[in-house]
From TrEMBL:
GO terms for cellular component: plasma membrane
PANTHER family documented for this protein: INNER MEMBRANE PROTEIN CRED
Full protein name: Cell envelope integrity protein CreD
The keyword Membrane is assigned to this record: yes
Amino acid sequence: MENPQNQSQEFQPKTPFWQSTTARLLMVGALTLILLIPLLLVDNLIWERSQRKQQVVKEISDKWGTDVYLYGPIVRIPYTVYEESVSVNQKTKETVTSRTASTEYAYFFPEELQNDSKVETDKRNYGNYESVVYTSRMDFKGKFSAPDFSSRDIADADIQWDKASVVIKTTNLKSIRDEVRLKLGDSNLTFEPVFNNAENDSVDALETGYFDARQLKSASTFQFKMTYRGSCQLLLVPIGKTTTVSMQSNWPDPSFTGNFLPADDKKITQKGFTANWKVLHVNRPFGQQTFGSLPDLARFAFGVKFVIPVDEYQQNQRASKYGSLMIGLTFLIFFLIQVQSKIKIHIFQYTMIGLALIMFYTLLISITEHSSFMFAYLVASAAVIAMISLYSISILKNRKFPALIGISLTVLYSFIYVIIQLEDYALLFGSIGLFAILGGVMWVSRKMEWS
């Protein structure tokens, strides 16, 4: 005779698939993917605000002064070159040789170039955005050796000694605050701007009037001063056979950039920095003179960037990258509680929880624009944790599970914040944290009924 208990189990109706745990898991997974769409819109919002900040910084820089790049001083001496052409007279069959003269230029770099720069920085605000500007006072000294044309076998009669000039290649001419005067040996020369026909070239030129280059001897000294308004960065090209630069500033977070780094004796404090460079001619692959035209030596420039070190928008973008992880882990917590406690959570309630998690990022970006990232993260995360915890009380009908959810969300948001702040160890810390979370989920779900 059959056991009545076995008979009742045989005729027990099966649970419909759409009410099974597997179906619920699939729906929660599909909802997680759908919520990536508004999360992507939030990421685009952060990018748009970041672009707006860059536009505002550019507007402030254009009004105050843009990057400063300086390449000089350089002695320029014109000389005459001849080109011969041979033609045949068709009537007489005689060979006629004609000679055409044209002018080219020789450029001579200084033997020594010393620069002492004092840079005073300031912050300019426009609405919610902030930009760094500076005023640099640069003192240049050095000496030129006598120009030598022997490498080109140019006759002395073809050298236009009396039409020599001194050239400086630079940017941001409109932000030079004082007249630039050069004392070269016994001569006093004034720099004047030279019109730049090239629309795609941002480097302009300053040039002195003519002087007789025959006065340049083996140790012809020079000196001049420049006062510049600029922003973002200050770059110099080491054209001296020996180039030494000393820079002092009140900016506490310098970013040394370019082809050469300062010496090890640099000092950086909360009140500013002091840095020194020394570049020899053997440290760069160009000589002390060039013929024809000046080469583009921008890749050999060095200097300092004056930028705000912590970009709130970059931190917001990094936080938004973990949005899908936050949604997935939060849904997983609710799903495990649902399976463990047999409490039904509707897909609409999952949707409300997911939207609350996405609202965290809009709160974060909006509060960050008016305060620090840390304060904004604290306020936004506290608001979202409180909202979801209170909402889960009405869903789960008790206080034990909502308390667990609140603690779990606090741990998750703290975990994400630490990863955002770390740079060198972000991957290591994140991998260990996710491994620990996976282990915890496996431990909790090891005895669950999934039918």
